Amino acid sequence: MAPVYRRHRSRLAVGFTALLCVDFLQLIVPRIIKYGIDGLEAATISTEKLLQLGGLILLIAAMVIVLRFSWRYLIIGFSRILEQTIRDKMFSHVLKMDAPFFERRTSGDLMAHSTNDLAAVQMACGMGMVAGVDSFVMSFAAIGFMIGIHPTLTLLALLPLPILAISTRILTGKLHNRFSTVQEQFADLTEFSRSTLISIGLIKAYTMESFQTGRFDTLGKKYVKSNLRVARLHGLISPLATVVGSCGMLMVLYFGGRLVIVGDISLGDFVAFITYLYMLIWPMMAIGWVANLVQRGLTSLGRIHNLLASRPCLPDPVVSSALVPLKQPGFYLKNLTFTYSSAEIPALANITLKLEPGIHGFTGRTGSGKSTLCKLLTRLYPVDDDMLFFDNDDVNTLPVEFVRSHISYVGQEPILFSDTIEANIAFGRPEASRKEIIEAAKNGAIHEDIMSLTDDYDTMIGERGVKLSGGQRQRLALARALLCNRPVLIIDDGLSAVDVATEHEVFAGLKRHFADKTVLIVSNRIKLLSMTDRIVIIGDGKIEHEGNHETLLKENSLYQSMYTKQMEQDAAGELQLS
C-alpha cells in the first residue's frame, strides 16, 4: 500500500489540511460563545455585537461545510482509489497462479477476499484514518483549551479516561479473533452459494432443493452467530465511551458549577468548558469505533497479504532477450515422472515420448494419467528439470507465458462465458474479424448450428453455455482453439459429446487447419483414434503401447477389447434404428 500513499501524498496532504482546518474552526466556536455569554452577564455587549457574533458562527459553519466536503472527497476518495488498486493487484495475482494454488483455495475464499476483506481495508484506510486523526487532534486541542480555562477542573473531567483506554484494549484484542472467524465463515457461505448455483441442474434433477436450503440455512446461522459475537463486543465499546464521557460531564457540572458560584471562573468559561467536553466525548466514542475499524482492517489486510504473498510452484524465468515465436514446436518427454501433492503414488512414471508435428491419439483406462499429461504439457503443474522439453529447451528455462502462447487447449469440460457466441469463439483472439470467426466455426463443425439460432453469432449463450447442448459446447470450444491458430493443439477428451458423423467432419477440419502442426487428442473412441497418425496407450501412469490403429489391433489386448465393444455397440445402434 505504501506506493499508493506516496503517489497520492499531495491529495492526502490537502485533505488532512482541510480536516485540521475544520477542527480548528470548531474549536473557535466555544470561544465566541464564551465572549457573548460573558458580555451578556456583565451587560456590556450590544445587540449589534451579538448579531456579529451570530454571523461569525454562521460564516464558520459555511466554511466547515466546504472544508468537510473537501476532506471527504479527497481522503474517502483516496480510500476508494486504494481499494481499486488492491483489487486490481489481487485479480492480476490470482490470474498468474498455477493449479496447485486453486486446489488449496476455494472460489468462495477468493471472492471473500475481494468483497468483505477489501471493504474492511477500505473503511480502515478511509473513515478509520479520518476518525483516528480527527479524534487525536480534537482530543488534544479540546484538552488544551480546557486546561486554559481551569487545569484542576480538566483533571477531574479526565479522571475516568484510563478506564476507557484499558477496556478498549481488552475488547479490541478479542475483536480481532472473532472477526477472523467471521471472514472465514463468509468465505464458506460464498463458496457454498457459488457451487450450488453452478450445479443447479444437478440439484433439481435429484430433487435436493430442500436439502441444499437446509445446509445453506445452517451456514447462514453460523455466520450470523459469529457476527453477533462481534457485535456484542463492538456494542460494548461505544456505550462504555458514552458512560465515561457522562461521568466526566457529571464531575464538571458539580465542581464547575461550584467554581462559577465562588467566582473562580466566569459563566462563559463554564459554558465553553462544557462545550469542549462535549467535543471530547466524540473522540472518546471514536476510540472504540476506530479500534473496531482498525482491527477489522488489519485482520483483512493480513488475509490479503497472505494471498498476495503466495507464489506459483511453476518456475517462470526472465529471459534477457525476446523469444521468437516458433512455427513447428514439439515436446520431448524424458523419463517424465509426476506425483500430485495429495497423493503417494505417481500419476505419471518414467514416460519417454517424442511429440512432433502430426496428429497423436492418447487413450487408456480412466485414471491412467492422460489428463495429467495434458496438464503438464500446458504448464499447469510443475515438473522437475530435464524431464520435459519444448522445442529442445527444458520448459523450466522458458517463461510459462511463452510456452502457453504456442498451445491451444480444449478440456474435458468446455469453459464458456455468459456472452455472445462470437465473443466466446474470439476469446483467445479478441481482435479477430467476423470472417475469421466464421471460418473457425466451420472448421469446428459448429457454423450450421450457430446459423440456426435466432441471432446467430450474436446469440447470448447464458452462464457456462446453458443454452447449448454438450456437443455444441465442445465444438464451440474447439472453434475457439482453432481461431488461435497456434502450433500445438491439445484436445483432452473434448469431443466426447460429438456424434460420429460430426466427429469425422471435425477431424477433417483439423486435418485442413493443423497440417504440419502438433495435435494431441485424448479419447477412448476408436473411430476417432483410428484416423490419427499415432496412438499412445497409457496405463497406470506409464506408456503401455504405441503405434497406428492396425498395429494396436494386432498387438494390444486393451485396444482390441475397446474396438470389439464399440463395434458391437454401433451395430446394436444401427439395428435399433432399422
Report on this structure:
- By secondary structure, this protein is α/β, with parallel strands linked by helices.
- The protein folds into 3 domains: 2-309, Up-down Bundle (ABC transporter transmembrane region fold), CATH 1.20.1560.10; 324-406 and 515-578, 3-Layer(aba) Sandwich (Rossmann fold), CATH 3.40.50; 408-485, P-loop containing nucleotide triphosphate hydrolases (Rossmann fold), CATH 3.40.50.
- It has helices at 2-7, 9-42, 47-96, 99-104, 107-149, 151-158, 161-198, 200-205, 209-262, 267-309, 370-377, 400-404, 421-425, 434-443, 447-451, 470-484, 500-513, 526-529, 549-555, 557-577, and strands at 331-338, 348-355, 358-363, 388-390, 393-394, 407-410, 488-492, 518-522, 534-539, 542-547.
- α17 links the parallel β7 (488-492) and β8.
- The longest helix is centred in the middle third of the chain and has 54 residues, at 209-262.
- It is elongated, with a radius of gyration of 36 Å.
- The model has no long low-confidence stretch (mean pLDDT 83).
